[in-house]
Design goal:
two-stranded antiparallel ribbon, mainly alpha
Length: 126
């Protein structure tokens, strides 16, 4: 059972997934900071300093903080757009790289086995 677990952990896709999760968490921190520290203040400037986070409505003792929900939606849209732009850029880089590889001349494979055998046969006939 221990050997099976070791084999499972050593598989490439498990390790790739772990690396992806770690990088994703780090990237989330960067995008969250971008949205909270740069983009939301800019939105506040253009909208006259309105902060949706403080909007709420009370019904009896229940308080509905719908402003936080609005901010979550705005944050999601901004984060989705940033991720879209990143993926779009990565795809363009990959596409350009593939075109460069395609355009590069293939290495000369040299004479084929058939050509070599024909040369040997011609030499033997002489």
């Amino acid at each position: 059972m221990l050997k099976e677990f070791k084999d499972f952990i050593a598989k490439g896709n498990v390790m790739d997934m772990a690396v992806g999760i770690i990088i994703g968490a780090a990237f989330t921190a960067i995008v969250t900071s971008l949205v909270a520290d740069i983009i939301n203040p800019l939105i506040g400037l253009f909208m006259g300093g309105i902060d949706f986070g403080g909007l709420s409505a009370a019904v009896g003792e229940a308080v509905f903080t719908y402003g936080n929900f609005i901010m979550a939606i705005i944050n999601f849209l901004i984060i989705a757009f940033v991720v879209f732009m990143l993926v779009r850029y990565v795809n363009k880089v990959k596409e350009a790289s593939a075109k460069e590889e395609e355009a590069a001349p293939a290495a000369d494979p040299g004479p084929s086995e058939k050509d070599l055998l024909a040369d040997i046969l011609a030499a033997l006939k002489k």
